[in-house]
Write a structure and sequence with these properties.
This protein is α/β, with parallel strands linked by helices. The protein has one domain: Vaccinia Virus protein VP39 (Rossmann fold). The protein contains 10 helices and 10 strands. Strands 1, 2, 3, 4, 5, 6, 7, 8, 9 and 10 form a 10-stranded mixed beta sheet that branches. Helix 1 packs across helix 9 (about 225-240), helix 7 crosses helix 9 (about 225-240) and helix 9 (about 225-240) packs antiparallel against helix 10 (about 250-260). It is globular.
Length: about 280
């Protein structure tokens, strides 16, 4: 499927896998009941599914909710193939498939409009910095049962770094974060704000830790499709700089694109993983 969002999400899969905080993951797995009911907000291409199997969770009922119908279609096909390889045998269903002891469904829709549910786990990866926190937490509480868990991995927290150094780095980073903050519902410091909120709330903050993205060349080459992923990050920054009148921005973008093409550019984004029991 030649869909820009599909390629971007698949390209960053390895970046996410390296970033995920192991201590938060281990606490999640320790508290997850047998055969859990799982709901994922903004499921994207459904990469949580093979990740669960890799972590030893093979019996579950999963529902992925995603606004983009193309991503839903891709996720159903691609993740069915992944789980068929992992557990051996897949049976199609109306909205997904069965694979071994796992039942999987994907639904096109707004995750924040989820109806009442009784899930054991809500997953919202790389999503909490894109939506209002009140809406996210309210939707998670509606979806969860009384002992449910909310897992918020890859939550951006206001650190965007590129190497080698460039004289305009600080100005570019500030303009990029300002553009994020100007969009309704978005928060460039979502990680720390959610951390504070969960600490102060009536629920229990069970785990928190850094989950920084690090993309770097190895002997002048980027692993997998991570060069494409990094090119998209540069486009996001370039869009934010357009019309912002940042001194040195044009040279910054041109320099970073040359460094990417030459396999010389390193990128780091600071993020948090959180595990919360409402």
């Amino acid at each position: 499927m030649e869909h820009a969002n599909v390629r971007y999400l698949e390209a960053k899969r390895g970046v996410d896998d390296r970033a995920l905080n192991r201590r938060v993951r281990d606490r999640l797995l320790a508290d997850l009941p047998p055969a859990p009911e799982i709901v994922e907000f903004a499921a994207g291409t459904g990469v949580t599914l093979p990740r669960l199997v890799e972590w030893g969770v093979t019996e579950f009922d999963y529902l992925g909710i995603e606004r983009d119908a193309d991503l839903v279609s891709y996720a159903r096909d691609r993740r069915a193939a992944d789980l068929a390889d992992a557990v051996g045998g897949v049976t199609p269903t109306e909205q997904g498939f069965r694979a071994g002891d796992a039942t999987v469904a994907f639904r096109t829709g707004d995750a924040l409009a989820v109806d009442d549910g009784d899930a054991d786990l809500v997953v919202a990866q790389a999503f909490a910095d894109l939506v209002p926190h009140d809406d996210l937490l309210a939707a998670a509480e509606r979806a969860l049962g009384p002992d449910g868990l909310l897992y918020l991995p890859i939550t951006f927290d206001g650190g965007t770094l590129f190497q080698p150094d460039h004289p305009a780095d600080d100005r570019v980073e500030a303009a990029y974060h300002d553009r994020i903050a100007a969009e309704p519902g978005r928060d460039p410091r979502a990680g720390r704000h959610l951390l504070d909120r969960c600490r102060a709330a009536d629920g229990d903050l069970l785990g928190a830790g850094a989950s920084d993205w690090i993309v770097r060349p190895i002997e002048g080459e980027y692993p997998g499709d991570e060069g494409f992923f990094l090119s998209r990050i540069l486009e996001f920054v370039a869009d934010a700089l357009d019309g912002a009148n940042v001194d040195g921005a044009t040279d910054w973008i041109e320099t970073r694109r040359r460094q990417l093409a030459a396999g010389e550019l390193t990128y780091v984004a600071h993020q948090y993983d959180l595990l919360y029991a409402p």
